[in-house]
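Q: Hi! First time doing this. I have a protein sequence and I read that you can turn it into a structure. Is that right? Here it is:
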Amino acid sequence: LHGEPLTHDWSKDHPHHRGIYWAWPEVDWRGQRGDLHALQKVFARPTGKCLAASGAVFAQVEAENLWRWEDRDAIVREEALIRAWRSGSHGRLVDLEFRFAALVEPVLLARRGASHYGGLNIRLAPVQGQRIRTRTDPPGTAPRLAWGLVEGTFAGAAAAAGFLILQHAGNPAYPGDWIQYPELNWLQPTFPANGARHELRQGQTLVLRYRLAILPADAATDAACAAHWRRYQSLQLDCSLKPS
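A: Yes, that's right. Below is the predicted 3D structure, encoded as structure tokens:
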């Protein structure tokens, strides 16, 4: 919130954890299984297509990756759009939008064991006085809110802060389950659904959208988190990268 790092990369206990990243531990292609999460057999590699823009309102990066099997065969095209809004008394908002499409044969994505972690992964730095709260409204609720919050004092910070994660209601299989490992300072909204394997196909794009909000502790009430979720649902991001 005031310049202190909130995420943790390449930790000794889990060296493949890399702050905020999107990856699946079960990636199936041609009857084989790779692990994009733990960096085994399949890897997301930059293509060099990258657009960056900044101004008075926000800064934005769009980048393209190809998932390469055994670091050779390109199997999935990925686009990532990251937009950081100007910070203020309300805190800092960061929007994430990901697009995935198989290039030739179908590719299956699943969480670990099809029921644990996978999707948008968030490994935070150590938090003193850590408290994790999540909300997922029951089926049939209109609108059906889904948000998660990690509260506490991060290293180097003078005051407590809240790290809020919002799911967009347009995501497939919304709302994703919340998976948390407090001992690892970990909270994530998962995809796909428990027990499911999502099939990426050529010509069909999977779009996943999330918002992160870094808030002063006194601005991280349940009512404020719900208001952030409602405001986020109306946002539309324009992706400028186009397939080759």
